[in-house]
């Protein structure tokens, strides 16, 4: 379902759209943020989990996003879709998280090659050898390429929405997705053939 289409609530009444809810939050009805939290917490958690591979950090980042939504609510204009605005905030929260983590590392570790994460049993999409290889290949992509693929493939955002989130042209996003998929395929084949560990 489109995030901006009215939704039917449990009583059969039409629920407000995400934009309408955020406009209410902006205008002082901050309790309405709970509805947006319910609608987006799982999606954001999965977004962060695919980027960080860390459940606790992902939970913290979801909380951080909604704290920022509350903090910056007065700046919400409603010109673009709520989910685009939300993912811009999520993306910034992730960048800040990476900066803090990098600053906490000793200097010699900051410049070391990032080791691949060990396989971890988590959710249904990771079941089976093929899914595990795809996950490991995704983990080995540089953060910007991993982010673009997570937004495109796993969050099902359209190219124009990703362009709005990242602040680049649609053609650039299309090229970035293409390059990221190509790199993902190469890494996947290396893992499958046992050339990468």
Keywords:
9 helices, 197 residues, two-stranded antiparallel sheet, Arc Repressor Mutant, subunit A, 2% strand, mainly alpha
Q: Beta-sheet strand percentage?
A: under 5%
**What name does the CATH topology of the largest domain carry?**
Rna Polymerase Sigma Factor, Chain: A
User: Can you tell me the CATH class of the largest domain?
Assistant: Mainly Alpha
Shape: globular
Query: Which sequence of SSEs, written as H and E, runs from N to C?
Result: EEHHHHHHHHH
| Helical amount | 55-70%
Low-pLDDT windows of residues? 107-127
According to CATH, the homologous superfamily of the largest domain is RNA polymerase sigma factor, region 2, helix turn helix motif
Biggest β-sheet, characterized? 2 strands, antiparallel
Cα separation of the termini: 39 Å
Look at the helices and sheets and give the structural class.
mainly alpha
Roughly what is the average pLDDT, rounded to an integer? 83
| CATH architecture annotation name of the largest domain | Orthogonal Bundle
Radius of gyration: 18 Å
**What topology, given as strand order, has the largest sheet?**
1-2
Give the total of beta strands: 2
- Count of separate DSSP helical elements: 9
Count structural domains: 2
